[in-house]
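Take a sample.
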Amino acid sequence: MKKTATATLTFLLLLLLYLLLWPVPVSPVAWDAPQDLGLVDPFKANDRLSLARPVSIDGYDGPEDIAGGKDGFLYASTLSGHIIRIRENGLDLSVFADVGGRPLGLEFDSQGNLYVANAPLGLQRISPDGSIETLVSEVNGEDISYADDLAVADDGRVFFSDASSKFNPATTGGPYDASLLDILEHGGHGRIFEYSPMTGHTRVLMEGLNFANGVAISEDQQFLIVNETGHYRVLKFWLEGPNAGTTEVILDNLPGFPDNVNNGLEGKFWIGLVAPRNKMLDDLSDSPFLRKIVQRLPAIMRPKAVPSSHVIAISGDGEVLMNLQDTTAKFPALTGVYETRQSLYLTALFGKRIGKLDKKDLR
C-alpha cells in the first residue's frame, strides 16, 4: 500500500510539473473575447444549404478555394499541392499545375495568370501555359510562412495575407495545426501585403492581425475586405479616398471563425465560417497561463474545429445579405463560396468533393 501511494504521488507530481513547465510552441497573450451570442439574427440557424450536392474531385482533398477561368473551367487548390480544373458540370477534371506546398487562395488576373497563395512557399503565379513562378517568399528579410488568401486589382496589384508569421504549416503539421497554434496564442502575427508586378516590390499594408485570412477587393477598387479569424471579425482597409491607409471594423463578434473572402455578384462578398467558436478559447482568453496548460493536454482534449456548414454574404459596409447553413453539416469546414450566375460552389478545408447549390434550389 505504501509503495502504491508513493508511486501515485510521484506520478501526480510529475504530471503537475509537466502541465506547468513542459515547453510548448505558444506564448499566449491576454485579450478579452466578446461574448458569444450564438446563432441569433442575422445568423439564425437554417437549412438553406441542405440541397447542395457533391461534385467529386477524383480523390483530391481539401478544395480550399476556387477561381473561375475564362476557359469555362473552375480551378481549385488541393491539399496535395495540385491545382485541379473541372467544368462547372463536374466533368473533364484534370491537373493544371503542381505547385507544391499547400496552395490555398486562388485568383486570376486580366491576362489569364493564376495567382496562388501557397501556405509555406509564398505568392506564386501560374501562366496560362502552366509554368510556375514564385514571386514573393520573403518581405523585408522575413520569410512568408503562411500565405493564405489573395485578391487581384484591376491594375494587376496583388493583395495577399500571411496568416501567421510565427507558425509555419511546413513545421507545425500543416495549415490546420498551424492555425490552431496561432489562434490559441493570439499574438498578432498576421499581415497583409501588396505586391506590384510592374516593379516587383512588396510592401506591408496591415500587421498585428490575429490570423489574417481572407482578402478581397471591392469592385470600385476603393478598399479591401479582410477576415481576422482569431478575432471573429471582418475589417475594411481603405486603399483610396480620404481614409486611405486606415482600417475599420465592419462586422464584429461573429458566431464562428471567418475564413476566405470571395467576391460575389452584384458587389457582395462571400465569407465561409469554417467552424463555430470554441467556449474554452473564449473563457480562457484573458488567462494566458491556462491557455499554455491547454496546449500541454493530449490533442484530443484541446480546442478543435467542430463540423458545421455556414457561409454568409455581406455588403462592403458589413451588412449581412445572406446567411446559409446546413444543420447536418453535409459539407463541413466551409472556407467560402465561388458564385456564378446559376450556382454557388462551396469550398472546404477538408473533404474530397466540392459542394454545388443551384440558385433555383436556394430556399
Observations:
- The chain has a mean pLDDT of 95.
- The longest strand covers residues 202-209.
- The CA atoms of residues 23 and 272 lie 34 Å apart.
